[in-house]
Write a structure and sequence with these properties.
The chain is α/β, with parallel strands linked by helices. Helices cover 47% and strands 19% of the residues. The chain has helices at residues 8-39, 56-72, 87-94, 108-112, 114-117, 125-128, 153-162, 177-189, 201-210, 220-228, 276-290, 293-302, 311-332, and strands at 45-49, 76-80, 102-107, 129-138, 140-145, 168-171, 194-197, 215-219, 232-237, 264-271, 305-309. The strands form two sheets. Strands 2-1-3-10-4-11 form a six-stranded mixed β-sheet, with helices on both faces. The N and C termini lie far apart (79 Å). The relative contact order is 0.17. Mean pLDDT is 87; it is low at 1-6, 8-15 and 21-37.
């Protein structure tokens, strides 16, 4: 019987060939990955806004996306995908391919606590989404009807105490920063009011101006024209310092209402797992857009303040925000399903 034996030389050659083949394959994969990184983005980007057109989030998105389209040299298409207090559009992005071509504008509540309020969501935003950059912060103000007998904040609080549960206030939804802010205000002042949820800020301001509701915590950008025309009165601002546009209106802190650090912020987010190169590219484009004179001028008209955080600073901020908002919302035990 003749036995076939592999010679030592042939064994070495075979090993060399296998090594070379593996190296070639790895090189091809690496080249492809590199190509994807260096050419991103090479097609239009869909930017989902989970609320109807016309509000503050939509306005901010359209301002920022215009500048980012220029920076990225690709069209950025805004898609208002609404419903279920913003959770439908948010869920759509959370479950989209993590390739950097589907992005989202998200706010405080949608990112930090929506999964606590809507227990049947198929996603958990802090886990299934990654913040790319915070964009703006919009100051919140406490407003009452223009013909309200309350001349100032102290009058309003005393009236609320004298009529527990009889004064109603509006918010754009249960669990929203504006709802939670009013609940905190009641806790800090020992008052009790009736909550009336709305679908949008426009309806809140209309009903507030006619006296259908007695108060609301609203974003200054939306309330600005109503206040200027005297249809509503702004009694306090929920900011660290007085607003330059409202120099005579005190802050809640000045009014001895402490520990109500409520603000409304918007951020750019992508599905978790999106390549870091794409995240970095998007963050840089967002920064360029936010810093442009055109964007700053438009933000001024809607009362928004640039609030840019990226990288490690953003990571720390997002963790702090999740912990803060969860500590407030969990004890409220709000459930919408």
């Amino acid at each position: 019987m003749i036995h076939s034996k592999t010679q030592p030389g042939r064994r070495a050659v075979t090993k060399t060939m296998l090594t070379a083949l593996c190296s070639a394959i790895l090189a091809m994969v690496g080249a492809d990955t590199c190509a994807q990184t260096t050419t991103y983005p090479d097609r239009p980007i869909k930017w989902v806004v989970p609320v109807p057109a016309g509000g503050g989030m939509d306005a901010v998105t359209r301002i920022v996306s215009a500048g980012m389209a220029t920076a990225l040299n690709q069209p950025v298409i805004v898609d208002n995908r609404t419903g279920a207090a913003g959770t439908i559009g948010t869920g759509y992005v959370a479950q989209s391919a993590p390739d950097g071509y589907t992005v989202l504008t998200i706010d405080n509540s949608l990112f930090t606590t929506a999964h606590l309020v809507f227990s049947k969501l198929a996603y958990v935003a802090p886990k299934d989404l990654k913040l790319v950059a915070t964009l703006v912060r919009i100051p919140l103000v406490l407003a009452v009807p223009g013909d309200s007998p309350s001349k100032n904040f102290q009058d309003f609080i005393q009236s609320s105490k004298d009529n527990p549960g009889k004064i109603s206030y509006g918010s754009p939804g249960v669990g929203s920063p504006l709802h939670v802010g009013m609940e905190l205000l009641q806790t800090r002042t020992g008052t009790k009011m009736q909550h009336v949820p709305y679908r949008g800020m426009g309806n809140i301001l209309t009903d507030l101006s006619t006296g259908t509701i007695g108060a609301a915590l609203v974003d200054f950008g939306s309330a600005r024209s109503f206040a200027a025309s005297g249809r509503i009165k702004i009694l306090a601002v929920a900011t660290e310092k007085r607003l330059s546009q409202l120099p005579s209106v005190p802050t809640l802190d000045e009014l001895e209402v402490k520990n109500v650090p409520i603000s409304l912020w918007f951020a750019l987010a992508v599905p978790a797992g999106t390549p870091e190169a794409a995240v970095t590219r998007l963050a840089h484009a967002a920064q360029l857009s936010l810093e442009s004179p055109e964007a700053k001028s438009k933000f001024e008209t809607i009362g928004a303040q640039v609030f840019l955080k990226t990288g490690p600073e953003l990571t720390a901020f997002s963790r702090e925000q999740v912990a803060f908002w969860e500590s407030i919302v969990k004890p409220m035990a709000i459930k919408l399903d």
